[in-house]
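Weekly modeling sync, notes
Attendees: S.R. (lead), two postdocs, one rotation student

Agenda item 3: backlog of single-chain predictions. S.R. asked that every request posted to the team notebook include the full sequence so nobody has to chase files. The rotation student volunteered to paste the first one in as an example of the format we agreed on. Action items at the bottom.

Example entry:
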Amino acid sequence: MNGVVVVIEITAKRLRHLRETRGLSQTFVAEKIGVKNNTLSGYESGRREPDSTTLNKLADFYEVTSDYLLGRSDVKNFDETDVSIFASGGFMDVGSEEKKRKVEAFLRILEEEEEKEEKKKK
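Predicted structure, as returned to the notebook:
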């Protein structure tokens, strides 16, 4: 199977899954990202491939990375991995287990502050 076809199929499945798990209609999503309903339907069925601008709009709308939509990553967004990657030394070797715990605690504090700020905005 052609690599491009596989990417289109993965993207189609992920787009449909993201929309359906949120209980959204194709019409609603299409309006929000500025495409016609039949265009979004084509993306979700694998008959059409979104251009980079539309792909980024879809990623922003669903709050996932474009890499996730393209099947390059199974991590939906960076926030899912922040603590675990740093705590495991994924970005850098932070040294001892104690240092790793401190980094993890620091990241959790940052996440809590970010959540508080988001709640204030609403």
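Discussion: group reviewed the output briefly. The first helix runs from residue 3 to 21.
Action items: rotation student to repeat for the remaining queue; S.R. to check formatting next week.
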